[in-house]
Design goal:
Number of domains: 1
Strand content: under 5%
Number of helices: 8
Number of strands: 0
Largest sheet: none
Radius of gyration: 17 Å
Structural class: mainly alpha
Helix content: over 70%
């Protein structure tokens, strides 16, 4: 196993999951929930996100092939989506999640799309095609652990970073996401023209 290849797989997923950036959104969604219920909610949300990511990892390529979509088509489309998400995040600080339902927020919207959103799912598929399943699975598992720990320690992170620090971290992550999106579009176009 090459550490450089692992980092190339891990970093885009780390940026796409944005573990620190989702903390303020998570805290806003769960402010009226007691601590014991929050722990169960975090576990349910993390499991739901992980299952969706694994399902997409396993069948994403097959679905693309069935629909006649090449990896480069998906890379370009995914790059455009990531670019739009990152630009939206850079220009405003509003939640990526709309119409929140309070009945069960663990799976929707926290698990999906807050944790396992389009950015993460697109990055998983491209990482699998670029670096292989071993690096992608290791990166996915490690990133899910980071997200789980970040949400579990959300109050501490909030105190540590304060609101302005958390917003700054989210903006930096969005900037990296924009750069990754541009790279995905560039590589997709270049490979399509070969």
């Amino acid at each position: 196993m090459r550490f450089e290849t692992f980092l190339l797989s891990f970093i885009p997923l780390f940026v796409a999951f944005d573990a620190i950036g989702i903390v303020p959104l998570y805290l806003g969604l769960t402010e009226s929930i007691d601590n014991r219920a929050k722990k169960k909610l975090i576990l349910n949300a993390s499991l739901a996100a992980f299952i969706i990511c694994i399902a997409f990892f396993l069948v994403g390529d097959a679905i693309l092939k069935f629909m006649g979509i090449t990896v480069n088509d998906f890379r370009i489309a995914g790059g455009i989506i990531l670019l739009v998400i990152s630009i939206n995040d850079l220009l405003s600080y509003t939640s990526r999640v709309k119409d929140i339902k309070t009945e069960d927020i663990s799976i929707v919207p926290i698990g999906i799309p807050l944790i396992a959103g389009p950015a993460a799912l697109t990055t998983i598929l491209i990482s699998n095609n670029e670096y292989g399943y071993l690096y992608t699975i290791l990166s996915l598992v490690l990133n899910m652990i980071i997200v789980y720990l970040a949400l579990l320690n959300a109050e501490f992170i909030k105190k540590l970073l304060r609101e302005s620090g958390s917003k700054a971290f989210a903006k930096i992550a969005s900037l990296f996401l924009a750069a990754i999106a541009v790279m995905m579009i560039r590589v997709g176009i270049f490979n399509s023209l070969k």
